Amino acid sequence: MNLIRFATTALCLASFAFGCKKADEPAAGPAKTRIGYIVKDATGEWFRNEIRFAKEAAAKDGFEIVEMGATDGGAVMNALDSVANKGCQATVLCSPDVKLGPAIVRACQEKNLKLITVDDQLVGADGNPLVSVPHLGISANEIGKLVGTSLYDEAVKRGWKLEETGLLALTHEQLPTAVARVEGAIAGLTSKGFAAARIFKVAQPEQSIASANNAAETVLQKHPEIKHWLICGMNDDAVLGGVRRFEKDLAATDIIGIGINGDAAALAEFTAAKPTGFFGSIQLEARKHGEDTARLAFKWVKDGVAPPPLTLTVGRLMTRDNFHTVRKELGLE
Ligand code: FCA
C-alpha cells in the first residue's frame, strides 16, 4: 500500500515537474531582427573590420547582421533585394557608386527597407549629398588637413629644402569623400606655406593600389627636378600605390607618404625592419563605424528611433612610433 502510494506520488510529482517545465519553455518568439550590411569591397580590410564590429554589436544586443558585397550598381540592387528577402527591415550601405543615390532610395522605399549609409555618402541628381538618408562617415576635410600638416611637419623635421620638395596628390574625383580628403591635405599643406606650384595632382581611376601606382608613374617621370616627395591620397591603398612606385626610383628616406584608414597594410609598413616611404596613416574609428551604424539601424527598426542625419568621425595620426598606443586607445588592439 505504502509502495503504491509512493509510486503514485512520484508519478504525480514527475508529471507536475514535467508540466512546469513545459509551462516555463519560452513560446517560439519572433526571430531576431536582421540588419543588412552591404559594402563596396567585401574583401577589403577596412570593410571586413566594419562588418566584424557590426557583428560584435549584433551579438551583444541580440540582433543579426546579413552581410553582402556589391562592386557595381547592378550588384547593389541585387543585394538590396537579397537583404529584404532575408527579412531585413533596414540596411547599412557603402555603395560602389554614390551617384546611384536616387535609384537606391527608390528601391529601399519599394522594399520598406530603412537605409543608413556608411563611409561614402550618396549624392542626388544635382551631385549634392542626399541628406535625407542618415549617414555616418569621416570628417574628410579635417582628416585630410591633418595629413597635410603632418606631411609638412615631417618634411621640416627631416630638414628638407621645400623648393626641392613636391606633393604627389592622388585624386579620385568620382567620390566626394576622396575629393574632400585630398583637398583637405592640400589645404593643410598650403596653410603652412607650401607652394601650390609644387603640388602635382593626378587621378587614379580605380580605388586600388595598382591604379595609384600607375598614376604615380606619370608624375614621377614628369618631375625629375623634385628631390623629395610627399604623398597623399584617399586612403592607405592610394598612398601605398604611390609610395611603392616612387621607392623604385628614390630612396625611401626621400619619401613621406601618409595614408588614411589604419589598414593592416599600413601596420605592416610600420613594423618593416627598415622605415619605408609610407610614414604614417590616419587611424579612423573602424569600430565606431561598424558598431554604431549597425546599432542605429537596429534601434530604428526595434524602437522606431530614426538615426541622426549626419555623424562624422575623427582620426588620429599614427606612425611607427605610436601606432600601438593609438590603436589601443581606439579599442582596436
Ligand atoms: C571610403 C574608402 C575606405 C575608407 C572609408 C572610411 O569608403 O574607400 O577605404 O577610407 O571611406
Explain what this protein looks like in three dimensions.
- The protein has helices spanning 2-24, 45-61, 73-85, 101-110, 140-157, 176-191, 209-222, 236-249, 264-271, 286-303, 323-329; strands spanning 34-39, 64-69, 90-93, 114-118, 135-138, 165-171, 199-203, 228-232, 255-261, 278-284, 310-313, 315-319.
- Strand 9, helix 9 and strand 10 form a beta-alpha-beta unit.
- 47% of the residues lie in helices and 20% in strands.
- With 333 residues, the chain is α/β, with parallel strands linked by helices.
- It has a six-stranded parallel beta sheet, with helices on both faces. Strands 7-6-8-9-10-12 form a six-stranded mixed beta sheet, with helices on both faces.
- 44% of the residues are buried.
- The chain folds into two domains: 34-133 and 286-313, Response regulator (Rossmann fold, 3-Layer(aba) Sandwich), CATH 3.40.50.2300; 140-284, 3-Layer(aba) Sandwich (Rossmann fold), CATH 3.40.50.2300.
- It is built from eleven helices and twelve strands.
